[in-house]
């Protein structure tokens, strides 16, 4: 009730009881004329009253700061005795809050209006004026640019052409192909406080854009003209996002948080506005006048006026009036996690803004997913807030029931971006009768208003039988309204400027955020810690992965096999160091997907001024530090001495510091990439590209001395280079590598010789420089992450117009806008005729009946409810439900929001993956077999989950074809083209021998490598419950494959107990194939220091294990890897289901 507590915001109602020091004259008339009660009956009450007066007198003597934090709660004991307890309102327990709410709102439908009246009465008696906001909009026009038809689809060709045209358009060399779309056209009017305003209009009429324009939420790429003022002040003079609240029709919440936690966090960030200052002034006046307020109202007002509380009483109030108290401690849930119903989620979106101190509300389609009864109740509560607390409120509803429609005071009817009517609800039918249209007696007024401006439906409402009907356009309606008496009065009101001096000083908010920076940080920090705990499985899984990989690493590079001190001993140490480095870096890549999934909610809350980007980012950074320390520590503790690195304890801790710094750098790098990419596809592509650059320029794959001079800058800006230098310096400058080299190299020790050969730094002080650089990169990437979140907006598919047979429907920044279109009608009509001429087969159809008997459904009691004192182990959602559906009979399943409609449908359709089901379900008398039933049934869920990158037609066609194999084929064609270009460039750059056979082999192995990695990615996603887990699993096996690929350590040098896994690494087969096909047949002699010359093919076979005669099996094996991953993927998506339902 953000707004009601605009009234709260401003102070509260006065109490009915007077202080014990009042005179006889101040007593009530009822007390004066009432006969004296029996003295013995009175004594108990008098004792309780005396006790209350004494405690209240003690509170009144406290300093203002303490007095505003103390209240009194009344409790009736089991023996009937009334006890008055003094409480600190900032530390109310669960039971105290429940007790207070029960005393205020025992039956919310009956008591809410009384409660608000008591609040207002206290404020009025104290002489405190409640701020009011009048919103005026004059000559508002909104338009944008959008591509039309197939050009609007986000294909590779269209994206390329759009980018090129955009660049050319900047210099004026090419005109834009976009079409101008007018969303709102010269709309003017007034939204007054204390009057409920209903915004009506058909889909695509511009309602969302209108509400966003009033609440200063329009996208920056829209062109806006006209003026919106609050109490005569334009948007630049105050902070409209906090003065008013826009409630979106899209439900974006963290599924891991409960309903109560979601609203508590919102209320904590939005603050209490001027409630505290108003309460302080009201309390001062009451104290001077000797007035004692109603203890319940006083406690409520004090509890809701304290900013920065983790949990607030205002949350309990909003939960109560929105009917969310029954699911307050249930997770909100998401696509993969069981949670509250769709209707309840919609109410959470509404409650998220009501808990704040806003004084004007603009609510967009708040009834989606709600039954008419619940919509009526919520609208009635909103009406009470508006009328009693002088709130300003506009609510957009698509099809309100008649009883809901009658709750509103004013109506704004919008059609095709123009206002057809704005004024009192009582006069709207009069206006349309003035225009010649009459609403039938048994027709809902709201439905009539939606249809009367439609060309298709308008004629049926024409009632002037003596005049021929003609279509009245929206523009004509809008023009005629100006001559109607309501329109004339509105124009007259708009001509008189609002008197700014009459505005309440607390009406408009000038502070950007609701609480201090420190409180914002604490709020975001506590929420981030909560999300980490709720996702503990993810972090445990991630830590387990690095633990397993560390165990594998030390068994491969076991110290019994690791000789040290000589140049020829260094190869395995280089491999172990580099493998450790890439593992710690890859372990941070999961941060990318974990950040991406958080961004939609962040962008919503950032734009609503819940908190700035830094308040969201810093807790993530700080809370990842102990995680980095744990994961780096596990790796170093398990691998350092078992592999046999430098034995000095100082070297151990220096390697730990190096890996910790690398891990922190990697986490911050991937967070930054996620913030720049903002979508899974873009961010993953950027992340992979960045990793490749960092690896190539890191100093291991390509030595510093081999990097071209014009690319040497890349070496110094690669964070991995500093990590590579730090761990290498720490190892090879140890005493055991201090012997002089056998052959003069210009360096005094073997260790420095090894470092010099790799182009690394050879002085000890460079270790600390590298550590400083890594921490500097971490700081830089975190600052860039904050900057990206501050200035970038959420990516969305917008500026799209698709042409249909009779109109152009545009989706522009989420707004549907219908436009008349005279083009294309002939071609579409021809297509209809063509389609009608086609005939298909007549398929046999067997009608089926479905019966269910004594169905019960239970789930395990949520931990949050157990924490609230619920002792039952299971929560029953369906209770002894029986019924039957017959063929040829259309059955409506109705019930209030949260009644269990979706749960019943899930159970009958066999979609539940958890919980406990009792009872029987039969199909035409036979027990239901789910495998068979799934083939003959269709289940249309309420959640709209679709790919955003396909058209409606393509989506329906995909469902009809079930074209899995075709999709894979399409993907393979794309990979083939991509790898051909890549192979052509890479083959020529490397300088391989130009022979058709060799190029074909090279292209084949690269193509198959791309393909099996694509199949592997699909398989990993299908086998795991979330993208984050899939990323962790993929990184684990990629690191595993790289370790045994023959690159870090040749196959003959791999310990015999691990050598078998060389053949289980697809990367090893690819490297084997490329090496063997390109140079495996060459007899060129090689000169090897300390060894006799030998032919290249002999060296490859003896040292690396590559045999040219094994080339054909390598070719066949690649096909096997692709088929293996594909069939596992296909099996997984058929039989595995990770949705928690």
UniProtKB/TrEMBL annotation:
Region Disordered: start-end pairs: 1-22
Residues spanning the membrane: 537-558, 632-650, 656-674, 681-702, 765-792, 968-990, 1002-1022, 1029-1049, 1110-1133
Key words of the record: ATP-binding, Membrane, Nucleotide-binding, Repeat, Transmembrane, Transmembrane helix, Transport
Compositional bias segments (type: Low complexity): 12-22
Domain ABC transporter, first and last residues per copy: 168-441
Cellular component annotations (GO), alphabetically ordered: membrane
Subcellular location: Membrane
SMART domains recorded: AAA
InterPro entries: AAA+_ATPase, ABC2_TM, ABC_trans_N, ABC_transporter-like_ATP-bd, ABCG_dom, ABCG_PDR_1, P-loop_NTPase, PDR_assoc
Membrane topology designation: Multi-pass membrane protein
Gene Ontology MF term list: ABC-type transporter activity; ATP binding; ATP hydrolysis activity
Family: Belongs to the ABC transporter superfamily. ABCG family. PDR (TC 3.A.1.205) subfamily.
Name of this chain's protein: ABC transporter domain-containing protein
């Amino acid at each position: 009730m953000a707004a009601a507590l605009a009234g709260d915001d401003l102070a509260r109602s006065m109490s009915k009881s007077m202080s014990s020091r009042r005179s006889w004259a101040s007593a009530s008339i009822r007390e004066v004329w009432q006969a004296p009660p029996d003295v013995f009956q009175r004594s108990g009450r008098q004792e309780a009253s005396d006790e209350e007066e004494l405690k209240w007198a003690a509170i009144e003597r406290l300093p203002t700061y303490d007095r505003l934090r103390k209240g009194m709660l009344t409790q009736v004991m089991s023996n009937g005795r009334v006890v008055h307890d003094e409480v600190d309102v900032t530390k109310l327990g669960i039971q105290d809050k429940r007790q207070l709410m029960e005393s205020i709102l025992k039956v919310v439908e009956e008591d809410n209006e009384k409660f608000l009246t008591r609040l207002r009465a206290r404020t009025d008696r104290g002489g405190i004026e409640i701020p009011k906001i009048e919103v005026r909009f004059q000559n508002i026009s909104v338009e944008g640019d959008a591509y039309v038809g197939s050009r609007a689809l986000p294909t590779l060709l269209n994206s390329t052409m759009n980018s090129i045209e955009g660049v050319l358009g900047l210099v004026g060399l090419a005109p834009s192909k976009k079409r101008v779309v007018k969303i709102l056209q010269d709309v003017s009017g007034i939204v007054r406080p204390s009057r409920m305003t209903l915004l009506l209009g058909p889909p695509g009429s511009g309602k969302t854009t209108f509400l966003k324009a009033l609440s200063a939420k329009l996208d920056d790429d829209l062109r806006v003209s006209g003026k919106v003022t609050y109490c005569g002040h334009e948007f630049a003079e105050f902070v409209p996002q906090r003065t008013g609240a826009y409630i979106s029709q899209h439900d974006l919440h963290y599924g891991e948080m409960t309903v109560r936690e979601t609203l508590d966090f919102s209320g904590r960030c939005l603050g209490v506005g001027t409630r505290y200052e108003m309460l302080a002034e009201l309390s001062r006046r009451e104290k001077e006048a000797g007035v004692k307020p109603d203890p319940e109202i006083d406690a409520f007002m004090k509890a809701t006026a304290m900013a920065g509380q983790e949990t607030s009483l205002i949350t309990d109030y909003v939960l109560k009036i929105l009917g969310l108290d029954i699911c307050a401690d249930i997770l909100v849930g998401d696509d993969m996690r069981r949670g509250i119903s769709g209707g309840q989620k919609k109410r959470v979106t509404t409650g998220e803004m009501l808990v704040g101190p806003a004084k004007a509300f603009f609510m967009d389609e708040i009834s989606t997913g709600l039954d008419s009864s619940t919509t009526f109740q919520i609208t009635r509560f909103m009406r009470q807030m508006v009328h009693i607390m002088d709130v300003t409120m506009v609510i957009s509803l698509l099809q309100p029931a008649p009883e809901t429609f009658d709750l509103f005071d004013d109506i704004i009817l919008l059609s095709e971006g123009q206002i057809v009517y704005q004024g009192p609800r009582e006069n709207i039918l009069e206006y349309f009768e003035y225009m010649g249209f009459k609403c039938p007696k048994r027709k809902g007024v709201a439905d009539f208003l939606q249809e009367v401006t439609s060309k298709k439906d308008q004629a049926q409402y024409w009632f002037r039988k003596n005049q021929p009907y003609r279509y009245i356009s929206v523009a004509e309606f809008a023009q005629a309204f100006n001559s109607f008496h309501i329109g004339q009065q509105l124009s007259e009101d708009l001509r008189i400027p609002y008197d700014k001096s009459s505005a309440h000083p607390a009406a408009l908010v000038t502070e950007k955020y609701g609480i201090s920076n420190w409180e914002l940080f604490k709020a975001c920090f506590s929420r981030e810690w909560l999300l980490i705990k709720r996702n503990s499985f993810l972090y445990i899984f991630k830590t387990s992965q690095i633990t397993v990989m560390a165990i594998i690493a030390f068994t491969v590079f076991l110290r019994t096999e690791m000789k040290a001190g000589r140049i020829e001993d260094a190869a395995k140490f280089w491999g172990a160091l580099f493998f450790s480095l890439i593992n710690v870096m890859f372990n941070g890549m999961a941060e990318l997907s974990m950040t991406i999934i958080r961004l939609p909610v962040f962008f919503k809350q950032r734009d609503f001024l819940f908190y700035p980007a830094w308040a969201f980012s810093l807790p993530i950074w700080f809370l990842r530090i102990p995680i980095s320390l744990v994961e780096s520590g596990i790796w170093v503790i398990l691998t350092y001495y078992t592999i046999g690195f430098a034995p000095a304890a100082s070297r151990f801790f220096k390697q730990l510091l190096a890996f910790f710094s690398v891990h922190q750098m990697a986490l911050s790098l991937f967070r930054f990439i996620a913030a720049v990419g903002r979508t899974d596809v873009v961010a993953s592509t950027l992340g992979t590209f960045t990793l490749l650059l960092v690896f190539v320029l890191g100093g291991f794959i390509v030595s510093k001395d081999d990097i071209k001079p014009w690319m040497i800058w890349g070496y110094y800006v690669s964070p991995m280079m500093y990590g590579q230098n730090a761990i290498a310096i720490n190892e090879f400058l140890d005493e055991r590598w201090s012997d002089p080299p056998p052959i003069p190299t210009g360096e005094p020790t073997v260790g420095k010789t090894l470092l010099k050969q790799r182009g690394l730094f050879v002085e000890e002080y460079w270790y600390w420089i590298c550590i400083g650089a890594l921490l500097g990169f971490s700081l830089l990437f975190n600052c860039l992450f904050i900057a990206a979140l501050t200035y970038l907006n959420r990516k969305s598919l917008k500026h799209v117009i698709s042409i249909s047979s009779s109109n152009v429907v545009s989706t522009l920044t989420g707004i549907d806008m219908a436009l008349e279109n005279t083009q294309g009608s002939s071609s579409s009509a021809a297509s209809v005729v063509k389609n009608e001429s086609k005939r298909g087969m007549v398929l046999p159809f067997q009608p089926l009946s479905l019966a269910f008997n004594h169905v019960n459904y239970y789930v395990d009691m949520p931990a949050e409810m157990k924490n609230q004192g619920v002792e039952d182990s299971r929560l029953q959602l369906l209770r002894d439900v029986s019924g039957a559906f017959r063929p040829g009979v259309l059955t409506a399943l109705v019930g209030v929001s949260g009644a269990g409609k979706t749960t019943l449908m899930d159970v009958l359709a066999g979609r539940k993956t958890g919980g406990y089901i009792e009872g029987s379900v039969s199909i035409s008398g036979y027990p239901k077999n789910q495998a068979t039933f799934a083939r003959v049934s269709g289940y249309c869920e309420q959640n709209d989950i679709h790919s955003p990158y396909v058209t409606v037609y393509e989506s329906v066609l995909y469902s009809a074809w079930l074209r899995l194999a075709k999709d894979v084929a399409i993907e393979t064609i794309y990979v083939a083209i991509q790898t051909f270009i890549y192979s052509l460039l890479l083959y020529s750059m490397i300088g391989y021998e130009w022979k058709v056979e060799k190029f074909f082999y090279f292209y084949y192995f690269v193509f198959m490598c791309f393909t099996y990695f694509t199949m592997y990615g699909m398989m990993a996603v299908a086998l795991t419950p979330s993208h984050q887990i899939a990323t962790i699993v993929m990184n684990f096996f990629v690191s595993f494959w790289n370790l045994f690929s023959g690159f870090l350590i040749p196959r003959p040098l791999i310990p015999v107990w691990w050598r078998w896994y060389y053949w289980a690494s697809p990367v090893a087969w690819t490297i084997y194939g490329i090496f063997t096909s390109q140079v495996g047949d060459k007899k060129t002699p090689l000169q090897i220091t300390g060894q006799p010359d030998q032919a290249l093919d002999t060296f490859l076979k003896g040292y690396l294990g590559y045999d040219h005669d094994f080339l054909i099996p390598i070719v066949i094996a690649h096909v096997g890897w692709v088929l293996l991953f594909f069939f596992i993927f296909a099996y997984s998506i058929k039989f595995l289901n990770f949705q928690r339902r």
